[in-house]
Amino acid sequence: MKVLVTGVGGQLGYDVMNELYRRGHSGVGTDVVTKAELRCFNERSAAAKAPYRQLDITDKESVDTVLAEEKPDAVLHAAAWTAVDAAEEEINREKVFSVNVTGTENIAKACQRIGCKMTYLSTDYVFNGKGELPWAPDCREYQPLSVYGETKLLGEKAVAQTLDRYFIVRIAWVFGVNGNNFVKTMLRLSETHDSLRVVNDQIGTPTYTADLARLLVDMLETEKYGYYHATNEGGYLSWYEFACEIFRQAGKSVTVTPVSTEEYGVSKANRPLNSRLDKEKIARAGFDRLPDWKDALQRYLSAIGVR
Q1: What is the pLDDT of residue 269?
Q2: Res 42: pLDDT
Q3: pLDDT higher than threshold 60 for residue 279
Q4: In the chain, at which end, N or C, are there fewer CB atoms within 10 A of the end residue's CB?
Q5: Hey, what CATH class is 2-181+207-231+277-291 in?
Q6: pLDDT of amino acid 209
Q7: Rounded to two decimals, what is the model's pTM?
Q8: For 126-154, how does the pLDDT look when each residue is reduced to its tens digit (9 = 90+)?
Q9: 12 closest CA partner among 160, 152, 122
Q10: Distance (Å, rounded) from C-alpha 73 to C-alpha 70?
Q11: Residues whose CB is less than 8 angstroms from the CB of residue 119 and which lie 6 or more positions away in sequence, other chains included
């Protein structure tokens, strides 16, 4: 199977390329910059050694050309604007819509033209975060609270309205080797702070991209299309609890104080308090669940040289 991966310079795209290589599939990486400009790119990895095409997904002609030339069996669309707070700034909004909506629509229509399947990565931010019940993958009670959530939802709709053969996979609280994330932020702050305030009323589950990549490739090897939710197992927790476990496993002496989102302040974007995602559909479809998040964190810390 030949898979074209967008956003290969990010956390997830990078791990997907490595997983494709491990399975014996052919991966073609793409991103908006040249290969030489990619940051945090481990040159020993399969992702770095695989074929690479510079691609601006907002450029329809370029998208059509690259997909027509590569003729992939599937496209895994991981490229996105993910700077949630920056998306709220008026100066950025046009760009956010261009990347997350127009770019996704360009990819979906190009997939339709060449007859290939598509995976689109979405987010818990498409929901309003009310209540305490987990959101089901086929729930249509959308009410995004932010520009980021709104644009990711419009991206979902572009895929579903264009294609029949698609996977829309919502994820949350992502951390991976190739890029910045909450775990790295906590570790960096632990070098300069003895105490930190972390919100305890936003509830969800972390997602390790190395584990997620395995599931996504599993999906692409099937025809079990539809909407899915995917995070690591191990129950639901707050960012405060996640931070405490990060410091415990990393052997860091940091006092963590739980605060409400309102008390914490700062953020420009409204964030959902309830990011619980119902993942039962993964098992019902016959896919393996992701491992426990504490186990995932342990493997991740080892991978980045902390343990």
Answers
A1: 87
A2: 63
A3: yes
A4: C
A5: alpha beta
A6: 97
A7: 0.95
A8: 999 999 999 999 988 899 999 999 999 99
A9: 122
A10: 9
A11: 74, 75, 76, 77, 166, 167, 168, 169, 216, 219, 220
Summarised one tens digit per residue, pLDDT across range 204-231 is 999 999 999 999 999 999 999 999 999 9
With beta carbons less than 8 A apart as the criterion, state whether 140 and 195 touch. Answer: no
Q: Where are the domains of the chain?
A: 2-181+207-231+277-291
Mean pLDDT of 116-135: 96
Q: What is the DSSP letter of 201?
A: S
Alpha helices (runs of H) in the chain, residue ranges in sequence order: 11-23, 46-49, 60-70, 90-97, 104-114, 147-162, 182-190, 209-220, 239-250, 261-264, 280-284, 293-303
178-213: string of b/e by CB count within 10 Å (b at 16+)?
bbebbbbebbeebeeeeebbbbbbbbbbbbbbbbbb
Distance CA 95, CA 81 (A): 8
Name residue 233's beta-bridge partners: 292
Residue type, 176: G
Identify the pLDDT of residue 41.
63
The torsion region of residue 11 among left (phi > 0), alpha (psi -120 to 50) and beta comes to alpha
Residues linked to residue 203 through DSSP beta bridges, in sequence order: 238, 274
Catalytic residues: 148
DSSP string, 5-50: EE-TTSHHHHHHHHHHHHHT-EEEEEESS-GGG-TT--TTSHHHHS
Which of 7-11, 46-50, 252-256 has the weakest average pLDDT?
46-50
Structure tokens at 284: 């019902």
- Residue 38 confidence (pLDDT): 77
